[in-house]
Design brief:
heterodimer; A: about 110 residues; mainly beta; 6-stranded mixed sheet; 4-stranded antiparallel sheet; B: about 110 residues; 11 strands; about 50% strand
């Protein structure tokens, strides 16, 4: 069965702190894709990153970085020097033959 | 501008009164999908469509209908809404190849009284 677990329901940090959002997935497929989406308070879903199962290189985009480790079935997301605008719900998702979402992690960044 | 649009954005209705939520994309995407988002459950797929006249059930299809008569439109129909269908609904589209990124509409917040 395919499954995505985001064990952290809610995280609160103070601005400029680094924060890591955990994502653990389960699948028996060898080919799959992993995604992160951001849902700000306005409610829309914003695509952040897509990573295929054959590419375990870590990725950095500005203050965002992603650590994909197949050995532990994890695809963690780190925000460096967090800002108030990072406050949102973040969803990790797994795509084998359909897109399956985790339950989301609400990140609150306080000034 | 490439986008997925949904209407209405907010809707309050009563049990049993049929309603339709429209979804339209201007990217010529083949794949379209509907999700509902509920607290503590993340997003769950309701229905999806691989192309015109091709639709299939997702994880939570009960109480919903869809149609895909044109490539750009994928309406979600609630024939007889019930309070447990109160939710935030998202439409999404992608080019249709396996594992392509799905782009989401702005969401429709539905309250069924």
């Amino acid at each position: 069965a395919q499954k995505v677990t985001q064990a952290q329901t809610e995280i609160s940090v103070v601005e400029k702190e680094d924060v890591t959002l955990d994502c653990v997935y389960e699948t028996r497929d060898t080919t799959y894709y992993l995604f992160w989406y951001k849902q700000p308070p306005s409610g829309e879903l914003v695509f952040l990153i897509r990573r295929n199962s054959f590419d375990e290189q870590n990725e950095i985009s500005g203050r965002y970085s992603w650590n994909f480790q197949k050995s532990t079935s994890s695809f963690n997301f780190t925000i460096t020097a967090s800002q108030v605008v990072d406050s949102a719900v973040y969803f990790c998702a797994l795509d084998t033959d359909k897109l399956i979402f985790g339950t989301g992690t609400r990140l609150q960044v306080f000034p | 501008e490439a986008q997925v649009t949904q209407n209405p954005r907010y809707l309050i209705t009563v049990t049993g009164k049929k309603l339709t939520v429209t979804c339209s994309q201007n990217m010529n995407h083949e794949y379209m999908s509907w999700y509902r988002q509920d607290p503590g459950l993340g997003l769950r797929q309701i229905y999806y469509s691989m192309n015109v006249e091709v639709t299939d059930k997702g994880d939570v299809p009960e109480g919903y209908k869809v149609s895909r008569k044109e490539k750009r439109n994928f309406p979600l129909i609630l024939e007889s809404p019930s309070p447990n269908q109160t939710s935030l609904y998202f439409c999404a589209s992608s080019p249709g190849l396996a594992w392509e990124t799905q782009y989401f509409g702005p969401g429709t917040r539905l309250l069924v009284l």
